[in-house]
# Entry
Amino acid sequence: MITCYLRYEIPPDKLAEFEAYGRMWLELVPRFGGIHHGYFLPSEGASDVALAMFSFPSLAAYEQYRKDSAEDPDVQKAIDFARQTRCFRRYERSFFRPVLPKGP
# Structure
């Protein structure tokens, strides 16, 4: 399993737009075989940072998602929404592998 961690820098006055953007991706990632773990919006502390995490069974599955999603009209809508609203300034993407308890 591979988990993608996204850290966004968001304008504080675009929080509602960013939340709408995130809700789009909550439905899109599972369509391509991933598990979305959610978006995490500012509450206390820094008001210009938001996070998101989603997982795929492997890096190869993630790469296939990137390829397949590039042609999807709903993905294009989400990308266009972000461009039009400027709901984030930039993002960083990192990948992690979980350490999970061993089964019986």
